[in-house]
Amino acid sequence: MERACGAIKVIDSLTTKTLEQEPYPGKDTPPLDGHVLIEYANALNHVDRQGLSTTLNAAITAHVYALTNLGAMINHHVKHEDVGSMVIVVDTTAAVLHEFCRT
User: Fold this and answer.
1) What is the pLDDT tens value at each position of the chain, 103 positions in all?
2) Cα separations (Å) of 53 from 4, 71, 89?
3) For residue 47, which phi and psi values (nearest 5 degrees)?
4) Do the beta carbons of residue 5 and residue 40 sit within 8 Å?
5) N-terminal to C-terminal alpha carbon distance within the chain
6) Contacts of 72 (CB under 8 A, 6+ apart)
7) pTM of the model
8) Residue 30: DSSP 8-state
9) Other C-beta atoms within 10 Å of 96: how many?
10) CA dihedral of 99, 20, 63, 43, whole degrees rounded to 10
11) 29 secondary structure, DSSP code
């Protein structure tokens, strides 16, 4: 469980930093790249889950899907409001994972 929780913490930190890179007018900030979030999801999906509870496994899977969907939405240039809604899902699934790791 320690390894899975460590991976969750790293992926969440990277996700947060990636999402905070909003482009600012007049600055040379690159546009948000959804492929990065999909890569984070893939990395989390490959974490060794042997010995984890089925509930924690399901929570990891939900977070993987949320990250993947968010990345795809960004890549397809969907409405900002829709991306914002998916960010909430990503934040919520991450919060659930952090709660599992706290116990």
Assistant:
1) 899 999 999 999 999 999 887 656 666 667 788 999 999 999 999 999 999 999 999 999 999 999 999 999 999 999 989 999 999 999 999 999 999 999 7
2) 12, 27, 22
3) -65, 140
4) no
5) 11
6) 34, 38
7) 0.89
8) P
9) 16
10) -110
11) P
